[in-house]
Each structure stands twice: as structure tokens, then as C-alpha cells.
Specification:
Chains A, B: It comes from Streptomyces bingchenggensis (strain BCW-1). The structure is a homodimer. By secondary structure, chain A is mainly α. Chain A contains eleven helices and no strands. In chain A, α1 crosses α2, α6 packs parallel to α10 and α10 packs antiparallel against α11. Chain A starts with a helix and ends in a 12-residue tail after the last helix. At the A-B interface, α10 and α11 of A face α10 and α11 of B. The first copy, chain A, binds a DNA duplex (30 and 30 nucleotides) through α1 and α3.
Amino acid sequence: MSLRERKKLAAWRAIRTAALQLFEERGFEAVSVEEIAAAANVSRSTFFNYFASKEAVVFDQDPEQRDHWRAIMAARPADEPLWDSLAAILVGFNELLGDRIPLQRRLKDRSPALAQSSWDVVGEQFLTDVREWTASRTPEGDTMIATLQLNMSFAAQTTAYQTWGADESFDDYLRRLKHCLHQAGTGAMSPPASTSPS
Amino acid sequence: MSLRERKKLAAWRAIRTAALQLFEERGFEAVSVEEIAAAANVSRSTFFNYFASKEAVVFDQDPEQRDHWRAIMAARPADEPLWDSLAAILVGFNELLGDRIPLQRRLKDRSPALAQSSWDVVGEQFLTDVREWTASRTPEGDTMIATLQLNMSFAAQTTAYQTWGADESFDDYLRRLKHCLHQAGTGAMSPPASTSPS
DNA sequence: CAGAATTTTGGACTGCGTGCAAATATGTAC
DNA sequence: GTACATATTTGCACGCAGTCCAAAATTCTG
């Protein structure tokens, strides 16, 4: 790893930690990009060299994390049913994010702007990667069914996130995620009536 | 309907038609709010009185439409399974939107900014209304399962939209939407292998 | 150490979205 | 219709996100 690369990574992390710190202290909207840059000892321009937008600094993942989830994807056996793979990938991804998710949650709760950022939890990069991965594992004519399963797995993820009560732990969240994935897998209308656990 | 209300509606429509016209001619990004306001014979301030953002003018629905989809929601029998209701509501909503959807599609295809607006197809208002409707029909402990079904129905909608080929008609899109809803209802992993129709 | 390649920086610029107070239009009561 | 209350429109100023570009600064290569 060359000096350049090390410095790049360091700058990326300096910006992100500075930003998150400020966001936690004063809320997303109340912090300007200028302030973030200043806190990270970088120019405003440099901030935009690393992050496409102010929101990206909340949702983008550490470059090293990216390698991890790519490994997770690559590890799925080629003959595994798509849905099972997607479920495993999403769970793995969430475990990977770990304690960063609560932070995102805290910020979102306080910020209208962040609240309706298209990307919840899963950042832009992961979305792109998992789309690509799905496409690579989908035979010619099945692209619709594959897209549907992909979107359904995200629906499960979103649901777990949305119904994550303020008093619940991260493990509770993970459990619910798995439950939602299972439920989505077996079908939305499978239970004729009340089948809500825990 | 008072004069005020009639004028309001007229202004709303004037702004939207002017905006859509300009967007079609020159693309979403290339048109400024000032230009839209000018084309609609209104001040810039007034534009923001009616639309919360430049994007909202693409996704917000005509106030009268809102009454229509509310009627659709109200018409669902109280004892119908949630999933069936949601499916019917979404189909009804899309039929209602009708030829406006292709327009949105055309704009989105040309505009990166629009492309990743959180709201695809279904605008903010419909989202809010259908959330509220769902909540009103959900017993105390079933909020997670209800949220999941809601999100899954949107996943089906999104999928139909994403896989809508440029050469396909609006009816093809509607057909695919129904198919996706059915598929999502019976479960993501139901087909062990290739089961893609048409 | 010299020159190529990449990154950082500052500065100017466009345009969205907000806030506010003055002007204008509509509704209401007499 | 005149007078007053209420709602809407308008202009103006402001902050700030995001883009572009050319000049510095830094790292890489030999």
C-alpha cells in the first residue's frame, strides 16, 4: 500500500469521523460542509473529492468494509437459490455494519433531510454491488424474478429498520431482520391471520 | 368551491403543466425554478408555496387524484386480507396515474437527479396516505407484519417499474405489476428454478 | 534531483430552499 | 359598496450545497 493510498484512506477517515462527531453533537442540518472540512483539516474542495454529497458521508462505507461484503457475496455457492443468498448477504452486511447502524439511526431520527434519503441503511455502494452480483448470478430470462427478489430482500431490511423500537438492542434488530427475511421468503400473504411473534 | 380554492387549483396546475413542459423539452436539471415560475406567470416564491421542492413538481399528484385513491382505499372491505387490499390499492393507483407514468419515466431516464429521488412513481402523498390507511387497518401487535407487507407491495411496484422495457406499453407495465404482486404474495423463494413467464 | 502524475486548494459561480415583511387579492359584515 | 379581517402573492436577502477550473502542493518514477 503506497503512501498515496495510505494518505487517501486516512483523509477519508478523518473527514468521516470529524463529520459524524459534529453531526452527533449538533445534528445533521446544523453542520455545514465547511465546518466538516475545517474539523478534518481539509479544504472544502477536498471534502467533495471524497464524498459526493453531505449525505454520502453518513451512508458511504469504509473502503475496507467494501472488501468484506464483496467476500461475503463471493462466498455464496453458485448453486444456492437466489433468495437464500440474498438473505445471507443482507444479514452478513448488517452484522458487518454492526454498531454503525445505531448511529445512523440516531442521526436520522433527528434529521428530516436524512430521514428521506433514498438509501436507508444500505449505502449507495452496497446497493450497486449487490445489484451487480445479482445480475451476474441471473440467467438471461429471469431478470424480473431476480429483481423482484432483490427488492423484496430490501423490503425486509427496510421493515426491520422501520420497526426497530428505540428501546431495542442491535441484536433485537438483527433477529427481526432475519424474521422479516424469512417471512418475505415464504410469502406476504401466507399467514391468514395474526402470526406476529415476540 | 370558493373562488380562492378554484384559483389555487388553477395555479397548481399552471405551475405543474409549465414545469413538465419545460422538463420534457430541456430535461429536469436544465430548467430552473425561476424559469418554471416565469412560464407559469407566478413568482418564484409562489412556486415554493405549492411545491416543497423542484422534484415534488414531478411526483406530487393532482389534489383531485388524491380524492380518487382515497376512495379506492376506503372501498376495500374491512375483512379483506391486508395483502389483497394493498395489491388492489396499488393496481388502482397505477391505473389512476395512467399516462403520467410514462412521462415520469422519460424524465427519470434523462435525469440523474430524478433517478435516485427516493420516491419512485408513488409520490410522497400517496405513500403517507397508504401508510396511514395500513396502520388504521392493523391490530395492535401486528404492526411489523403489516409494515412488511406494505414494503413488499412497494417492492413489487418498484420491480415492475425497473424492469419496464423502453419498448413495452403501459398495459405491459400494468400486467407486470400484477404479476409481481402475485409473486411477492406467494413468496420470494417459491419457485425452485426458472419460472419466468412472458 | 528532475519531470510526470496525482491530489489539494481556493475562488468564482449557479441554483435550491428559507424567512420575512410589504403588497395584493379574497371573504365577510354591515 | 365600504371597511375590515384573512389568506395569498411577491420581492428581496441570505445560507449553503454542489460544480468547475486553474494554480499550487504532494507523491511517484527513474
